[in-house]
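A student in our group prepared the protein record below, which I am reviewing. What it holds is a sequence and that sequence's fold in C-alpha cell form. My question to you is simply how this chain folds and whether the C-alpha cells agree. Do not assume that whoever made the record got everything right. I have pasted the whole thing underneath without changing anything:
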Amino acid sequence: MGPLRGLVAVTVLALVTVVAGCVPSVAPSPTAEPSRSSVAPAPTPSPIADVDPTAALSLEQKVGQLFMVGTDVQSASPATITAITDRHAGSIFLHGRTTAGADAVAALVGQFTALAPASTARGNAPDGSGPTGGVRLWVATDQEGGEVQVLRGPGFSDMPYAIRQADLPADQLQAQATQWGAELAAAGVDMNLAPVADIVTSHDARFSNPPIGALGRQYGYDAPTVEAGAGAFAAGMRASGILPVFKHFPGLGHVTANTDTTANVHDATVAADGPDVGVYRPLTAAGASAVMVSTAIYDNIDASAPAVFSPRVVSLVRSDVGFDGVIMSDDLSAAAAAQAWAPGDRAVLAVTAGVDLVLVSADPTVYAAMYDAVLAKAQNDPAFAARVDEAAARVVTAKLARP
C-alpha cells in the first residue's frame, strides 16, 4: 500500500478471505527440528474504492478509534462499557483467562458489539451513527498458545507453545492456525495479538529472557526460523478472517526483564539494521497484519525513551520495514515500563510517535484520562489533529478491509 497522508483520501483494500473448514489436529513432534521453509506471500490486495473512511466521523469518534480497551473475559467490565458509550472506544481486548468455552465468549462479545453496531456493509464508509460512528468494533485477544492462551474450553483447541508449533513444517502449522483462527471467528473475535516475532538470543540463553524465551513464546533463535513459524501462524489466522498482530517490535528476545513488571528495561542488542527489525519485512509483506511496538528502551536506536514513545523507533516500521498498516502499542494501562508517565501523557506520546492504536488492556479505568488528553490536544494543536486523522483513517481502513 502507498502511504497514508493525514486528511487525504485513502484506499480501502479488499482482501480475499478464505474461510477454511475443520483441519485435523496435527500433534507436534517434541524432537523435530524447526522448519525453515517460507510461507508464500498472499495475493496483492485489490483496491475497490477511493474514499475518506472517516469523513462522517466527529473528532470525538476519530479519537475513540485510536484506542483498544480491555475487558475481563469472564464478565463485561463496566469501565469498558462506558469507554464505548461515553468516549467512543473503537476496539476491545478480551483480558484474563477463561475455560467457559466459545459460546460464553460469543455471548460476552455480543454485549459489546451491540453497543456499537456497524452502519454499513463491508467496504463502504461508515455513516457517523452510534458511539463509534458506525465503525465496527475490533474484538481482540491473546491466543498465542502455551501459557499465553486467553480462551479455552469447549470450542477452543489447546494450543502448543510457539516453540513447539515451530516443530511443524510451515504448511502443517498454517493448517493448524487456520483451525485456531476459525475457533476465534466463531466466538466473535476478529483480531489476534499474535504471533510473536521476537528472535531470542539462543537456546541456551532462553531462560534469561523472561518475557519470551522463558515462556516458550519464540518460534526460534534466528530470523529464517521465526519468519517461517510466525509467517505460517499469521497465514492461518488470515485464512479464517482473523487479523494477526506481529509483536513486539523491534524485539524483546534479548532483554533480561519483563516490561509488564519492570520499569526501565533496556535492550543493548537490537539495531535498526539487524535481523530483529529485518524479520518484519517478509512477515508484513505476506498479507494483512498489524504491528505492536514494545515498551522496552533500545540503546542502539533511541536510548532516551521506551520504543512506543520514540518517533525514531516507530518510524522504522514505516521507513525500514515498509509497512503502512496499523501500528499499535503494547499495554500502556498497567505495564510497569509506562508507569513513570501519567496515563494521558502515555497516550499523547504514543500517538505523537506514530502509533495508530493505543492498547489499554489490563486496566480500563485509565482510558478516560487517556482519551481526554488526546482529544484536548487534537482540539488545540493542528499538527496533532492531523496525526489523529491519519491514525483514525488507517484503523478504519483496516477494519473495512478485513484480513
